[in-house]
Amino acid sequence: MTPNTVNNDDILLKLCHSVSHVLSSTSASQISHAGMVQSISRTRLKPDLGCFSIFDGGFSGLVVINFSADAAIEIYRRYMINMGMPESELAFSHTSDDVGNVMGELMNQILGDFIGKISTELQTSISQSQPKMLTINKELTISVDTNLDDAVARRVSFKTENNHIFYLEFAMDKTEFIRSADFEVDEEFDLDSLIETHGKQTSKKSETKPDMLGDPNVKGLVADDADDLLSELGL
């Protein structure tokens, strides 16, 4: 691969970054992914909690995240506590509907972050299906087949702050994006940071700017200027 090309594994790495970033920030904990990527023949939903979403557009693919019960509960509880929920009101079992709903919402945020980055960096548009979450027992494994052209499938392991493991499985069309010589990626900016910086600058100017209208000398100058203007107009 040259610096001017982006292939399947580069896109997978962006997805891994989105998973780590979203789950770490929303749960106020450290979520990391392994440095090794495993090549697999097909994607599967596995115990204890499996979530998947299909995307389509500039390229097609499938994202599956298989959480162990411990990993799901840890992320769920950290997320809810970070949102201000009292610990006494939280579920303790990964089979709870509340856990499934929260993990599905987090999956939605992960894909939203991923699609945003892909849309900016690769100048292509993709859309996602609503993530589906299934509680799976130890004896059940579900294969998820998609109509992909020359599919590439990968698995990456992730680790929570308490060392609980979960897996991302990813399948997509074999593809390659080639950067043209005159193409430049628009720099991303943080709107909240921009507003905050602007607010600080405005506040600083307000603090350092003298109260001109409160100065009697200035008021006199303004009045004199107004009188001169009226005289010139013959009023």
Automatic annotation (TrEMBL):
A matching Pfam family: DUF3334
Gene3D superfamilies associated with the record: CheC-like (3.40.1550.10)
InterPro entries with a match to the protein in the record: CheC-like_sf, DUF3334
SUPFAM superfamilies according to UniProt: CheC-like
Positions of the UniProt region annotated as Disordered: 199-220
UniProt superkingdom: Bacteria
Segments of skewed composition (Basic and acidic residues): 199-212
Assigned keywords, A-Z: Chemotaxis
Protein name: DUF3334 family protein
